[in-house]
Design a protein that fits this description.
Number of helices of chain A: 5
Number of helices of chain B: 3
Shape of chain B: globular
CATH architecture of the largest domain in chain A: Orthogonal Bundle
CATH architecture of chain B: 2-Layer Sandwich
Helix content of chain B: 25-40%
Shape of chain A: elongated
Order of helices and strands of chain A: HHHHEEH
CATH topology of the largest domain in chain A: Arc Repressor Mutant, subunit A
CATH topology of chain B: Alpha-D-Glucose-1,6-Bisphosphate, Chain A, domain 4
Radius of gyration of chain B: 17 Å
Strand content of chain A: 5-15%
CATH superfamily of the largest domain in chain A: Winged helix-like DNA-binding domain superfamily/Winged helix DNA-binding domain
Oligomer: heterodimer
CATH class of the largest domain in chain A: Mainly Alpha
Largest sheet of chain A: 2 strands, antiparallel
Number of domains of chain B: 1
Radius of gyration of chain A: 23 Å
Order of helices and strands of chain B: EEHHEEEEEEH
Helix content of chain A: 55-70%
Distance between the termini of chain B: 38 Å
Largest sheet of chain B: 8 strands, antiparallel
Number of strands of chain A: 2
Strand order of the largest sheet of chain A: 1-2
CATH class of chain B: Alpha Beta
Number of domains of chain A: 2
């Protein structure tokens, strides 16, 4: 697990690989499509993709002669990380709302008290 | 404390569910009364909402302004489309960062669940590209944060 985390961190510590992940967040793509926006050769892009695959962030499948890549669906995938961040913010709000609702309930408790 | 469930659905939705130990009416009021909203819809610790406009009627305006008291702030604007007390709210909202983000249509349902309320919040983004861009933006930020942490460790 630790080595997976290390691999993920070092895979993310490169702007080209981060850009590739952002592109893949928009959907599956072939190496040709992924290489297009970069001033890099396809073998160089393939090398970056291999690092991302080894880190478990990207997976490939076989379709004829192409090997389209997509984001890995594992719980450590970047989208899941983003969802976790959003979840954290919402949880904070709704935990606060729990307290607000408790204070709104107080008059009812008073009504139920013994005279 | 209840568990929040957050998931993506189809190409354009994000769905959030959360249970509250309070009746539907109270949870609905907490979402439509500006005085109550200012107490909880605050995001991370240290932020406040000095301006909260919430006109809970169809066509009514929504405007929330947040600040961290250190000169940083952003705001959200929106409009109410449908309200069914105390079970359903439909509104549209956009963040201003400072440019507006694409409209996010939000349907919020409050269903009785025993003595409590089950809230289901369903966001609909205009298209798959917008949701993907939203995911990618968040992802980029998350990665930047990871990268900054990584730099701190070296």
């Amino acid at each position: 697990m630790q080595s997976n985390l290390d691999a993920a961190f070092s895979a993310l510590a490169d702007p080209t690989r981060r850009a590739l992940l952002i592109r893949l967040a928009k959907g599956e793509a072939t190496v040709t499509e992924l290489a297009e926006p970069f001033e890099m050769t396809q073998p160089a892009i393939s090398q970056h993709l291999k690092v991302l695959e080894d880190a478990g962030l990207v997976v490939r499948r076989v379709e004829g002669t192409t090997r389209p890549r997509r984001l890995a669906k594992a719980g450590t995938g970047p989208i899941d990380q983003w969802l976790a961040m959003l979840r954290k913010g919402l949880e904070k709000n709704y935990d606060r709302l729990d307290e607000v609702l408790t204070s709104m309930e107080q008059p009812k408790i008073k009504r139920g008290e013994k005279r | 404390m209840s568990t929040l469930i957050l998931k993506t659905e189809g190409d354009t939705h994000v769905v959030v569910t959360r249970r509250f130990a309070a009746p539907q009416e109270a949870v609905y009021r907490a979402h439509t009364d500006p005085k109550i909203i200012q107490k909880w819809l605050l995001g991370p610790d240290g932020w406040t909402m000095p301006i909260c406009i919430n006109e809970a009627r169809p066509g009514g305006t929504i405007r929330y302004e947040w600040t961290n008291g250190k000169g940083d702030g952003f705001h959200l604007t929106g409009e109410y489309l449908e309200l069914e007390p105390y079970s359903r709210i439909v509104h549209v909202e956009r963040m201003h960062l400072p440019g507006p983000t694409p409209d996010n249509y939000v349907e919020t349902r409050f269903d009785a669940d025993g003595t409590g309320t089950l809230m289901t919040l369903r966001m609909t983004l205009p298209d798959a590209q917008t949701r993907a861009a939203m995911l990618a933006t968040g992802m980029e930020r998350g990665m930047e944060a990871s990268y900054v942490r990584l730099e701190g460790m070296i």
